[in-house]
Amino acid sequence: MGEITYIRGDATAPSVKGTKLIAHVCNDLGGWGKGFVVAVSRRWPEPEAAYRAWHRGRASNDFGLGAAQFVQVEPYVWVANMVGQRGIRSGSKGVPVRYEAIDAALGGVAEKALELNASVHMPRIGCGLAGGKWSRVEPLINERLVKRGVAVTVYDHGEN
Q: Which of 43, 57, 66, 131 could staple 104 via S-S, CB 3.0–4.6 A?
């Protein structure tokens, strides 16, 4: 069994060969514009457009906590929009992250990665604006992806 590879760099620019699936967490409100999605949108307009259309059509599709949407942005690069946070602000109900939703979405990511024979690349999902703890997210990635033989790289951005 493998393990998660940690590197410093930009998760939107994986430098490995083969098909790559970039996974990140979105909210359930249709909001896109802060955090990692800014870097995604700087590189490709398609994930944001697809996410917004998915949210608009939510009455008749699978949009919701735990769902994952897959958008092809280059011949060998896909982006997984995972709905893993309720709302966008911390408040009386705690932080926006929903671990069970991230877990469910990662199950979909694993299926897609295996279908595409892709490696998965991500920032520390759910741990930025969503307010989650990596100690809760990392085991989900190990269970859903690594144990199924999917290569996972987690990117830490910046200096610290």
A: 66
Beta strand 119-122 pairing with 20-27: parallel
Chain centroid offset of residue 85 CA:
11
For residue 96, with 0-12 CB atoms within 10 Å meaning exposed, 13-18 middle and 19 or more buried, which class applies? buried
Place of tokens 């060969």: 17
* Per-residue pLDDT tens over the stretch 73-85: 999 999 999 999 9
Helix (H, G, I), strand (E, B) or coil at 132: coil
As a whole number of angstroms, the distance between CA 46 and CA 60 comes to: 21
Give the separation between CA 133 and CA 128, rounded to whole angstroms.
9
Whether pLDDT at 127 is above 90: yes
* 53-61: long-range pairs with CB below 8 Å, 24+: 54/81, 55/29, 55/30, 56/30
Query: Cβ–Cβ contacts within 10 Å for residue 58, how many?
Result: 15
